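Because discrete structure vocabularies remain unfamiliar, we first show an illustrative case, written as a sequence plus integers encoding its fold.
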Amino acid sequence: MKIKLIIVLFFTILGFIFPLASWAVNNETDAANVKCIECHERITPNVVNDWKLSHHSREGVTCAHCHGLDHTTSKDSEEARLPQPATCAECHEKQVKQFRSGKHALAWTVMNAMPTTHKLPMALTKGSKGCGGCHKIGEKTPEEVAQLKEEGSGYGHAACDSCHTRHIFSKQEARQPQACQTCHMGFDHPQWEMYSTSKHGVRALLKQNGVLPETAAGPTCQDCHMQDGDHEVRTPWGFLAVRLPLPEDEEWRKDQITIMQALGVLDPEGNPTPRLEVVKAADVIRSTQADFDKEREKLLNACSNCHSDKFAKGELAKGDDLIKKADHLLAEAIRIIASLYQDGVLEKPESYTYAFPDLLTFHDAPRPIEHRLFVMHLEHRMRTFQGAFHNNPDYSLWYGWSEMVVDLSAIKDMAEELREKYEANGGLAKNIQLETTTSPEGK
């Protein structure tokens, strides 16, 4: 009897202590939040206003929950914890798990895998004024964040706020196509320009403007690429529009091999290189048929809300065919330049692993003829197939295919001139340059 009384008394005391401890923690957090608000209403009032408008505010998620309690004055602002996906996962575990399975989580890794990244000014990468401004959506390790801070990059290390902008963190905002606009636009991936001027985009924007009723069909980026709010964003062809296994069509197969050699994932003999594993790890290609089919089925599921299965499959097949045709143009251009290396007309740059054009050097390519090839690949080929999949005829034709045809013609002329210079120089490649270079825009 005495033992039972002790046990009951023990648990009664525990039941009193734990709520008290919880109250103490909450009380400390609430008190800190009041102090944060009082200060930041004077210093950064719109930050406070956004938080007050947020669902976080209504649910009692305070400044301290995300930023910790260590920053208390203007002199110790560096002590404020800057949230990472792991911070968001404390409440949004499902969404963060999905995010980590998709391409966005790897965006920082992809940027750093590009050879040209490490030749850019820091402001354009880690300073977020260039590629880093969008690739920051990728998750970073604690070690990477610490290194960024050490190198002078104090902010922009989060991920979720790329779409749910701080400090309102609105789900409704992230559901709008404009949430994708900042990053999916411009030189190498103008999906916004393609989508917003396609019939899909026009109808979605007319719904926003109230011209069409809310119940009208008008697919957004999220309807196709984030079905049911799934944060695992991936596409069948990936960013580079190359995949494994290689196509059964013999000509296309050879063309894709040539492109993969120029991407540096296969060597000039066709053997896999260490870069192939980097590209696979960065998820910029689909490396199995099952991966491709899974993503293609997702898109067909989205299309079926408005279109018959037969129609949707036919439209996507047209996009596949344009990749095939564009690959043939690009592969021919690559082979022309590769032959210049093979015949000794061009010397292998020190930065190249092989005497073969390297598409991933981008604007750091050593010669105008390879600059032209870089633009043909990263701007015009991208627009050819991306325009098709985003249902924008003008982008596919005039900004894509037509420009690739012009690029190939220019590369042929430039190669012929280089060969003439080589012969005139007694078969010596050294110091051979074009007298008048053709710009990537043909001007």
